[in-house]
Design brief:
The protein has 545 residues and is of the alpha/beta class. Helices cover 30% and strands 17% of the residues. Strands 1-4-6-7-8-9-10-12-14-15-17-19-20-21-22 form a 15-stranded parallel sheet. A three-stranded mixed sheet has the order 2-3-5. A two-stranded parallel ribbon has the order 11-13. The longest helix has 18 residues, at 515-532.
Length: 545
């Protein structure tokens, strides 16, 4: 007799959900045999366990093998490919009963390179097309919520992929990032079906390649305009976006995250939307909270920013693949100041370094410009900044007074990274005295990366460094290419006074220039920290002779 507890469906579901399953990343922890055992234990566990077993599929092979054996066969000696058995015959509803029994349990489907442990056989183009043409008006996976469609699929597969779209599909990842031009050009055609078959899509990822010819198909703006429930968009393409696409995206009431990468592969590519918009913003993104823009040229990023109003933006990440110059970068910071809410923006990431893509071939790398405090001053209006990252091929010229103004402008700052990869760094003007301002005005800072000049560091016996202000949170810093001077005791004492919890310097990399010079400083910090933990009521007994 079954225990009454097993009649509670919620309890059964909790038990089954405790069994580790394939998640696409940590498949080694999957306990598939336990799920099979649960499915065979009793009726109470049968359905929930089967739901878990079939919920995630890598390809369609396992389901095709649920069809009658006279409809398919294994076509090669390796036993990895399924194809249609000839001659074909018409199917009946009974032929599909076992297929549907399991297909209705599938909620996550990856189609492409194998991701999980229980791999299925690959479908030939012939049987793939037959699978959908046999029942054109039927949703094969009525409860499918996630579809990951990867690259390197035959063109015929792309023609039918929209048949996988169902009423419960909420996440679609569609990537074709290769020289297979025909397959990539099928992407816009596939997306046309999305609003009609899956109107509740929440997350959309699109990767598509184009050869720059007249036959390139652009992303249809009407598709985005129809996805009124879309919350997150990730787009990677070699084609510029039409203004109509931005018009459609700005009108989406629930779009909170957008990641757009347009890589033309040509440093001299024309601007994205034409010339810089001097008039009022054309696109108002009223719900957008996170925006990531990655383009070949900083001028294209500026064009986008100048055309947009971002009143709710909290996180902004900008990357120029071909670097920048100081005037263009200054313009970028001005646009951020003028088009983002000073009260809302919390995270700013700016990357303008060609070193991110070392494989790119530049005939001549220009002499880097210099970013000054006047440019960074455009960001002082954002009082809620919590994270600021600047990675650039340009020089960064700051002194202690500039750092003080930064610290006073951003009292909530938690992470500050100012990194230049210029081959020859000019003499840095920021000293440990400048870091004391960060310790005083940014008490929540827990990460710092900056070049610092420690020459002439001195700790007075009459006054505590930093005026007795200290940061009790920071435990690690990255002084990048800076070298510790010949006074590790003075440097360690100064750093301990302003950052008493500091333990690690340049610990993230073993090949950081100057790292060896910081080891004595770390040792000094460790000794001072141990000494501070001694009992304060300890009585020192003098030695007697």
């Amino acid at each position: 007799m079954v225990h009454r507890a097993l009649t509670i469906s919620e309890l059964i579901q909790l038990i089954v959900s405790e069994v580790p399953t394939d998640d696409g990343e940590s498949w080694s922890r999957s306990d598939f045999p336990t799920l099979v055992a649960l499915a065979l234990t009793c009726r109470a566990f049968h359905e929930p366990a089967l739901d878990m077993i079939w919920s995630r599929q890598d390809g369609l092979g396992n389901l095709v093998e649920c069809l009658p054996g006279d409809l398919w066969k294994i076509s090669d000696d390796s036993g990895k490919t399924l194809t249609l058995r000839e001659p074909t015959r018409s199917t009946t509803q009974r032929d599909w009963e076992r297929f549907e029994f399991y297909a209705r349990r599938v909620r996550i489907l990856h189609y492409g390179p194998k991701r999980i442990r229980r791999k299925s056989r690959v479908l030939s183009e012939q049987i793939f097309c037959w699978l959908f043409s046999s029942r054109p008006s039927h949703h094969l996976f009525p409860k499918l919520s996630f579809l990951g469609w990867s690259e390197n699929m035959p063109f015929e597969h792309h023609e039918s992929v929209h048949m996988l779209f169902g009423p419960q599909l909420s996440t679609l990842h569609m990537g074709v990032w290769s020289s297979d031009f025909a397959a990539s050009q099928a992407v816009p055609q596939v997306l046309v079906h999305l609003p009609f078959r899956s109107p509740d899509i929440h997350e959309l990822t699109i990767h598509m390649y184009a050869n720059g010819g007249p036959d390139d198909q652009r992303l249809p703006s009407k598709v985005f305009a129809s996805l009124i429930r879309l919350k997150s968009l990730t787009l990677l393409s070699t084609l510029p976006l039409e203004p109509d696409v931005f018009t459609a995206l700005s009108a989406l009431p629930h779009l909170t995250e957008a990641k757009i990468t347009i890589h033309s592969g040509d440093e001299d590519a024309c601007g994205l939307l034409g010339t810089d918009h001097a008039a009022a913003p054309s696109f108002i993104f009223r719900a957008l909270e996170s925006l990531t823009l990655t383009f070949s040229l900083m001028s294209d990023i500026n064009t986008i920013l100048s055309a947009c109003s971002l009143p709710q933006l909290r996180r902004l990440s900008l990357t120029s693949l071909y670097g920048s110059d100081s005037s263009m970068f200054d313009r970028t910071l001005q646009l951020i100041r003028d088009h983002c809410s000073h009260a809302m923006l919390e995270v700013i990431e700016l990357r303008t370094t060609i070193d991110l893509f070392p494989s790119m071939d530049f005939e001549e790398v220009p002499e880097p410009d210099t970013i000054t405090a006047a440019s960074l001053g455009h960001l002082f209006a954002f009082r809620s900044i919590r994270e600021l990252e600047l990675l650039t091929e340009m020089y960064i010229a700051l002194d202690d007074d500039d750092l003080k103004e930064m610290a006073m402008s951003w009292p909530r700052l938690k992470s500050l990274q100012l990194e230049s990869v210029a081959e020859e760094e000019p003499g840095m003007s920021v000293t440990l005295e400048g870091l004391a301002h960060l310790a005083r005005y940014c008490p929540a800072m827990n990460w710092l990366a900056i070049d610092v000049d420690t020459t002439g560091t001195f700790v007075s016996p009459d006054a505590r460094p930093g005026g007795s202000y200290c940061n009790q949170v920071l435990q690690a810093v990255d002084f990048q290419r800076s070298h510790a001077s010949d006074c590790p005791a003075e440097i360690g004492a100064f750093l301990y006074a302003i950052f008493p919890k500091l333990q690690w310097i340049n610990s993230h990399s073993d090949d950081t220039p100057g790292e060896d010079s910081w080891k004595p400083v770390e040792d000094m910090l460790d000794a001072l920290r141990k000494m501070s933990q001694w009992p304060r009521n300890i009585v020192l007994t003098p030695l007697t002779t």
